[in-house]
Amino acid sequence: MDPTLLTVAEASRAIAGGQLSPVALTEAYLDRIGALDGELHGYVLVLQDAARAAARDIAAGRSRGALQGIPIGLKDIYKTRGIRTTAGSRRYLDHIPDEDAESWVRLRDAGAILLGKQETHEFAIGGPDFSLPFPPARNPWNTEHYPAGSSSGSAVAVAAGLCAAAMGSDTGGSIRGPAAYNGIVGLKPTYGRVSRRGVFPLSYTLDHCGPLTRTVEDCAILMQALAAYDPLDPGSADVPVPDYRAALGMRLDGLTIGVIRHFHERDAEAAFGPDSAPSAAYVSAFDNACRTLESLGARLVDLQLSPLVDYLDANRLIMLAEAYALHETDFRERPHLFGHHMFARIALGAFLSAADYVEAVRQRRELALEFAHAIAEIDAVVSANSTGPAPRIDAVSTYSTFERASYTGPYNLTGSPALSVPIGFENGLPLAFQIAGKPFDEAGVMRVGHAFEQATELHRQRPPIAASLPQHQ
Amino acid sequence: MMSEQPMSKERFIVLVERAGLTLTPEQFEELRHGYRFVERMVRTVRRPRDRAAEPAHIFVHPRG
What we know:
Chain A has 15 helices and eleven strands. By secondary structure, chain A is of the alpha/beta class.
């Protein structure tokens, strides 16, 4: 039996029950990485010896929890003590941190094993860039296609069975976009729910750290280990952590779910042009997903918010200003160290004024209040994610981040928890939508996501490349 | 919708010099065209507001 086919929940039970060894599971994942990652480029550094040693230690030691012996990957912006962390950039090509990211510490303390560091867009913004030291990750559903970013390698590795779960980061959609294009689950938690300490920042007030997994239950398991108050992260929230799995498996009777249709049905094309209009297949998949939620007992109501562009441009402007401020010295003194996409995108922040930034942050408060009022009597919100299949990787332009509509940025702006869940396929490539909620209600968001997932069985569909290797069949 | 014409080279040089950037000719042209996105974003967020409309990041006392 191929243990890499098991979800985190399944593998955890098998390890706890003695039917599966962490050593065997780790070895099976390393076999798959060796066989497939040369084509997929999900990893920039594979820690074979360290992973094997960690697996032996875990197997010999006391149980630490639900992640006991579970092999995971980290986006290569998560600092790992003594282990190269590049942020996908020549600027940090030989950087060896002297600290561990706090979220990695929490996963490790829960028993997780680190398989390696995963490909990222440069500084979580600049990709897919073929001029960088590390080749861009490839979509496992069709390797000629884009896996989205910036948590590209992490999403690819989860989808292709090169790790059981992974950590990404999300400033405008960099967990949820890759989750959508790779047919997996991705959660951007509430701002402040998961520590950002020890993770290369892109934008201080928009960055979120979160998991990429094959199922919503797996996401809940990782969140149980991740969620905590970190007094050394200025943005960390001192809010109690619930049992994230308690509500999984419940129907949605009695829940009211708000549906934001105008973002994708009207606003995207109105602001960004016909290329941003959703595909007919996406509209159909989204509508079917809403009907599935109703069949599970939820009452759906339409929500009206400000236009999508109001949310997106405030998010993007804040990101540009904060990201440029972070990198300004290097942009002026050593611009040759940046890849093309990183430079072209973040340099635009140099042309913003302080007043521009303040106006964007004033708009942020207005929109966050608008959203909070809109969902005050609602249990969860659904809205679109990428409204068409992944494009070809060679067709992603330098300014694709700004010239087209996206649907993920609003929840970075509001700081709301937002979960990407698969809803179907188009031309053999995955489609997804988002489920969002009130601050710190990840449990409620995952309840809805889990119910939907279990009703559709889409989580059982995996790319052909994820099939078992011959030695594990 | 975005303005179709990028800023003139003469005007964009002023922005580049003020930003202290040293650009290759290719970078200059790419940023000059990309600046249209910045112009759109700024148009979106610059709107009349009551002076009492505060930004989202008010000062918060650090925890000791």
